[in-house]
Amino acid sequence: MLAWTGIILMSLLAASVPVAAALGWLGLILERFYSMMPLHLALGEIVWQNAIEYVLVAIPLFILLGEILLRAGIAERMYGAMVEWLSWLPGGTMHSNIGSCAIFAASSGSSVATAATVGTVAYPEIARRGYNEPLFLGTLAAGGTLGILIPPSINLIIYGLLTDTSVPQLYLAGFIPGLTLAILFMLTILIAVLIKPAWGGEPVHTSWPARWKTLPNLLPPLGIFVVVVGSIYAGIATPTEAASVGVVAALCLAASFRALNWNMVREAVEGTLRTTAMVMLIIFAALFLNFVLAAIGMTTQLINMINDLGVSPMQTLWVVIAFYIVVGCFMETLSMLITTTPLIAPILIGMGFDPVWLGILITLLLETALITPPVGVNLYIVHGIRDRGTMNDVIIGASPFVVTLFVMIVLLVMFPSIALFLPEMFYR
Amino acid sequence: MLDRLLLKAEKTAQIAVWIGGGLLIFAAVLTTIDVLLRKLFNWSFGGADEIAGYMFAISTAFAFAYATLHRAHVRIDALYIRVPARLRTALDVLGFLMLGGFLGVMAERAFDVWWNSVLNSSVSITPLVTKLAWPQGFWFAGILFFVLVFCLILARIVTALFARDWLRIAQLVGPRGVEEEVKEERDHALAELARERAIIEKARRDVRGGDS
Lengths: 428, 212
Known about the structure:
heterodimer, A: globular, B: about 210 residues, mainly alpha, 6 helices, about 80% helix
């Protein structure tokens, strides 16, 4: 049963069937062969219950927030400031890509929005300064992954929902790992450029007066960050409410930049709903598949299999990490989070691992999944902003950053306090 | 005829998305006011979360058709880009049929959910006591709209198959980017052609020049 499930899923995905349809049909096929009960009858109820799930409303709101920031020119200004502040490093504006992604991640909850927004703004730099195109694209794909680690993060909301873990604690825990990872990404660029100086493009000329002048451009995204994340920590708002406040604040900001008009709002909602429909369809299909897997006993089979390995908690953890890395190559991250968390989190938490720490670890693994081929959403997104070349350029360029993520994962396992320091200080 | 209908469907999907986006922004503003009132005056009108949930469900359902018309559904192209063009067309159609099929099953079940609420006059177990038939009705309508658009695209694919119009199929259900690639290829070919013509022209002139 386990093997067939894998084979069917792989075949459907390899045949380039849309991911949502592949997950949904896997559920329907498994029901047909392994279930005595007509499980698909529950599909309508599953979809409706989750379609109105208040926690999930945060998803389109955070996407909308990103779209508004992008179209208000806020991201462009922020990128300009980041170029002034970070491009003196060898590797030039590639460091600005990571810095902008980190800041944008702090005002948007999704990696897709982060990669798409910063990518769109940064892409012309390749031609302007002659960077190595794959490496440059890699920085965008990798930097974008910060979106789900640095709060506010959509994935951490879903993890919190599935494991009954406090979202504010998860958000606090994401801070230091997020910053550490951003610094590690920049170190990766430095190493790459030291090995091959030609990849670094033409040096960018900046000056201190220009730096101070652009500093106010960093304020709007940081302001949004303070409003959204601050209202959650202050206990004023739930994540969805905070996302709503963030959208309203972003609209006000856009108005103050005189960028708020009918066309801009129209484009923002079109982009938001296109992404939301795609993401939610995958979530619905994955939740249905989840339901079928649990009903036919696959979930138990999987847990037994892991228990049968008869290994220590640490070994189990490494098996799980390996599992996520392998599955992450083939599965879209949100579907992976939704299908695996209810299975894996209870096993590991039962073995004594901290749920908040585990949330951050899984998020790092999802970040890896975002940029590992053949299925890596950020790879698609970054390739999507280009008008030439093949996916392979992005895949090659992102590969050094996959190694960086591995390093970060090892660091987090060896020093759990990277994630737990802040939540322990504030909550425990 | 079909193409005109498809254009109409695209326009309708777009307007549906505008309305859906409006609902979403409305929900955000409503929630923000609720949060502010609660913080400043310790008073809440309650139910903002429930309303936001319904708006979310409805706008998402109506956006399915839009996302499909814009080919926004994630597909894995690792193998896809390595197979011959005709096989790609077959995979495009297969993927589209499976997407429609799954949503078809979903639509059938969604109808059941809605119709049960209508028959039982179900209400939500919340202070708002919403008559569920209303939000569920709009939600089902959104999924039904997808099914209609799906049938329309399917009909157009069938006619394109008979006409062996592979390009049109790629435009309808191929991955995004194919169109652009095709255009690039064509522009490239045209440029090549122009260059060749120029060379021939130049050679002719040179020959004539040699004659005179």
